[in-house]
Amino acid sequence: QKEVEQNSGPLSVPEGAIASLNCTYSDRGSQSFFWYRQYSGKSPELIMSIYSNGDKEDGRFTAQLNKASQYVSLLIRDSQPSDSATYLCAVRGGGGFKTIFGAGTRLFVKA
Amino acid sequence: DTAVSQTPKYLVTQMGNDKSIKCEQNLGHDTMYWYKQDSKKFLKIMFSYNNKELIINETVPNRFSPKSPDKAHLNLHINSLELGDSAVYFCASSQEASGGDGQFFGPGTRLTVL
Question: Is 60 exceeded by the pLDDT of residue A1?
Answer without folding.
Answer: no
